[in-house]
Amino acid sequence: MGINIIIGYILMFIGAFFFLLSAIGLLRLPDLYTRMQAATKSTTLGAISSIIGIGLMREDILIKSIILATFILLTAPISGSALIRAGYKAKSPMTDKTVVDKFKEKEGE
């Protein structure tokens, strides 16, 4: 077993850990906005770690996995932001603990 296989397994384990954190965040966080934070940030890290780990384990697809990880890195935060904005425009309720509403402040200017 080569060093790239071992690093690949470690990255896949890290990716699975971030996916687990994302699932816990989706279950525990109180509203759409905080759940989207958990869904976008940790799943992006989990997906990138897993894809790079698979690429290291199979060197014939390493370049493809790097390109795919870059695409996910660039698009996942944008799609998460678009979903949060759509939820805000659909008047999805915020939790009572929310103290700052940056969208409302921006519209008031």
UniProtKB/TrEMBL annotation:
GO terms for molecular function: sodium:proton antiporter activity. Keywords: Membrane, Transmembrane, Transmembrane helix. The chain crosses the membrane at residues 6-27, 63-84. It comes from the Bacteria. Pfam families: PhaG_MnhG_YufB. PANTHER family: ANTIPORTER SUBUNIT MNHG2-RELATED. This is Na(+)/H(+) antiporter subunit G.
